[in-house]
Amino acid sequence: MISPDEARPESVILFDDVACEKQDHIRNYFCMGCHKRVDCFYLCQTYTRIPNHLVRDDTNFLISFKQDEMNLRHVYDNHVNTDTPYARFREMCLACWSNHGFLVIDKDSELNEGRYRKEFDCFMTTNSPTESSESQSNTEA
């Protein structure tokens, strides 16, 4: 595998099922790849198997399919805990995971303006369902 310094600008690097591999080279991509405008994708079956330092910590866009309680708690602790109570986050996840869907966390978006999404285009709020409901994004504007 080439180093991040050798990668072409605006490349896409996909790490698929590498949780059992040595992570040093992968960490370099997550740490230095942004300087070369390299987008990195890390695919893994189990969230807790993803290295915390320089991979989970540097994540800015997370797609989560159905998780067990332990992995869900880790996602919450790492990316959500200041935004909403755990019970509400769990409700949001369960709503997203129905019919084999997924939850998106876009950490570059503002809270209640696309940070949490059911799949890619249905924005969710961190308010309880009785206070507010999911809203469709306006992709044509």
Summarize the structure.
By secondary structure, the chain is an alpha+beta fold. It has helices at 24-32, 52-56, 69-80, 86-97, and strands at residues 12-16, 39-43, 61-64, 103-106, 116-118, 122-124, 135-136. The strands form 2 sheets. Strands 3-4-5-6-7 form a 5-stranded antiparallel β-sheet. Strands 1-2 form a two-stranded parallel sheet.
Give a written overview of the molecule:
This protein has 141 residues and is of the alpha+beta class. 27% of the residues lie in helices and 18% in strands. It has 4 helices and 7 strands. The chain has helices at residues 24-32, 52-56, 69-80, 86-97; strands at 12-16, 39-43, 61-64, 103-106, 116-118, 122-124, 135-136. The strands form 2 sheets. The protein has a 5-stranded antiparallel β-sheet. A two-stranded parallel ribbon has the order 1-2. Strand 5 (116-118) and strand 6 form a beta hairpin. The longest helix is centred in the middle third of the chain and has 12 residues, at 69-80. It starts with 11 loop residues before the first strand and ends in a 5-residue tail after the last strand. Residues 130-141 have low confidence and may be disordered.
Class by SSE composition:
alpha+beta
* Average pLDDT, all residues: 85
Name the helicity range: 25-40%
Order of helices and strands: EHEHEHHEEEE
How large, in whole angstroms, is the Cα Rg?
16 Å
Overall geometric form: globular
- Strand proportion: 15-25%
Number of strands: 7
How many helix segments? 4
Give the spatial strand order of the biggest sheet: 3-4-5-6-7
Instruction: State the major sheet.
Output: 5 strands, antiparallel
